[in-house]
Here is the input.
Amino acid sequence: MPTEVRSILERSCYDCHSNRTRWPWYSRVAPVSWFVARHVAEGREHLNFTEWDRMSPEDQAKAMEEIGETVTEGEMPLASYLLAHPEAALSEQDQTLLRQWAGGRARDPGSRDEGES
Ligand code: HEC
Here is the structure.
């Protein structure tokens, strides 16, 4: 995985999709704690970037396709999370980079690069 891609994912996705959750103070206060814990448990179940390097190429390809979809549709990061973590929002540039990495090049005519795969 390219470093630029990883750093975007670390900022915007790792709290829910890795073993490196930075638990915020409010996650210890019920009922928010149940809500947050459930999101993290569910998020990891779907996709855990800590496992990435151990995943098979087929699983990685499938995950990349799903990541591209969630980014294109603006589903991730979850809206409720962005309220508390505005810094996790993906900029246009972040989205383009993630989509290109995930294989969604067609939507970005500006930066098509022939020689590269
Ligand atoms: C607040 C926690 C949270 C954050 C932050 C978050 N996710 Fe998720 N993610 C979830 C949860 C919960 C699910 C499973 C439920 C769902 O699909 O809504 C999920 C599911 C997914 C799925 C599987 C979708 C499917 O259709 O099965 C993908 C892919 C994904 N997330 C990618 C990302 C990416 C990429 C980011 C960062 C840009 C991100 N997520 C940030 C919580 C989060």
Remarks:
- Residues 12-13, 15-17, 39, 42-43, 46-47, 66-67, 70-71, 76-78, 81, 90 surround heme C (CB under 6 Å).
- The mean pLDDT is 80.
- The two ends are 14 Å apart (CA to CA).
